[in-house]
Write a structure and sequence with these properties.
The protein has a domain of 205 residues. The protein has 11 helices and 6 strands. The strands form 2 sheets. It has a 4-stranded parallel sheet with strand order 2-3-4-5, sandwiched between helices. A two-stranded antiparallel sheet has the order 1-6. The longest helix has 21 residues. It is globular, with a radius of gyration of 19 Å. The relative contact order is 0.16.
Length: 324
């Protein structure tokens, strides 16, 4: 996606509308949260500290990250709030969903953020950046959390009933393209698979991982499609013929993946009690870029900081001043 300069929270209206479908039968807003807990699985878009103590280039617990966040840098890859900081507030939670890296015990009952920057559906995705927690590892952490919740709640049946009322959001796949398939010097996937075949490989693995999540108690799941990563500053700098036009080769491959992901949602909804919804992340970011003024944001085709003024391929350096 193109870089979005944020000075405050942002949430696509369509994303919010679709997301809240999961809680539409729970009645009007009230002092207590509309759902008992919220669990998050994703990458740098919402990582809020899980990578802080990992040996990795994909960390953000230093300025200029967090310059607009109360208390300063936390590990969020943004100047302020992420979308999953906004959603809990709208659902009635009294604070942010904390990272799993520093959450144990009773605090697990309100939900946890398992997201990890550079993570992907495939194990090797993002390895050139160092440590990260792929989706399989995030699911393993979730299962550990569930076991602790079983102990706290007094049994598996009670925990299963509790979890069935919670919201889960999962948004994976961006790095499987940016930090895998379209990085041929480091990964062989683009030589091994056509975009259609790679999308099949990803969605088959993703489907199995989502079934693992279902088998561990998840019932209300928002599955977020991949955005327009062919419009990201790093890809514009490396692949765009004019440095401005989005890279159609990448966006086209993303479109194939997202289309197959909709089919996965339909299959998962055949499971007993499952309520999966597909969030059109691609369309949301397209709408933001076309109608940025309506969202109160400005959109540019270069990174806000990092190594290389225009490509933003490497994260912001500590205490680096963002580009104007």
């Amino acid at each position: 996606m193109a870089h979005v300069e944020l000075r405050g929270p942002m949430l696509g209206a369509r994303w919010l509308l679709l997301f809240l479908v999961l809680t539409s039968s729970l009645g009007p807003a009230r002092p207590e949260p509309r759902v008992p807990c919220y669990f998050i699985f994703e990458d740098s878009l919402v990582d809020n500290g899980n990578n802080n103590n990992i040996a990795s280039l994909a960390v953000a617990n230093y300025p200029p990250y967090g310059v607009d966040f109360a208390g300063g840098p936390t590990g969020r890859f943004t100047n302020g709030l992420t979308t999953v900081d906004v959603i809990p507030k709208l659902l009635g939670f009294h604070g942010f969903i904390p990272p799993y890296a520093r959450t144990r015990g009773q605090a697990l009952l309100a939900g946890v953020n398992f997201a990890s920057a550079a993570a992907g559906i495939q194990e090797e995705t993002g390895r050139q950046l160092g440590g990260r927690i792929p989706l399989s590892g995030q699911l393993q952490n979730y299962r550990s959390a569930v076991q602790e919740m079983v102990r706290i709640l007094g049994g598996e049946e009670t925990a299963a009933t509790y979890l069935s009322k919670c919201i889960f959001s999962v948004g994976m796949g961006s790095n499987d393209y940016l930090n895998n398939y379209f990085m041929p010097a480091l990964y062989g996937t683009s030589r091994q698979y056509t975009p259609e075949q790679y999308a099949d490989v990803l969605t088959q693995q993703y489907s199995q991982q989502l079934r693992t999540l279902y088998n561990s108690g998840a019932r209300k799941v928002a599955l977020i499609g991949v955005g327009q990563v062919g419009c990201s500053p790093s890809e514009l700098a490396q692949r765009s013929p004019d440095g401005v036009s989005c890279v159609e080769e990448i966006n086209s491959a993303i479109g194939v993946f997202n289309a197959k992901l909709i089919g996965v949602v339909d299959e998962l909804n055949a499971l007993d009690g499952a309520h999966f919804i597909y969030i059109n992340g691609y369309g949301i970011f397209e709408d933001i870029m076309r109608n940025s003024a309506a969202y109160g944001v400005s959109v540019t085709n270069r990174g806000c900081c990092g190594v290389g003024r225009n490509n933003g391929q490497i994260t912001c350096l500590p205490y680096q001043a963002p580009y104007a």
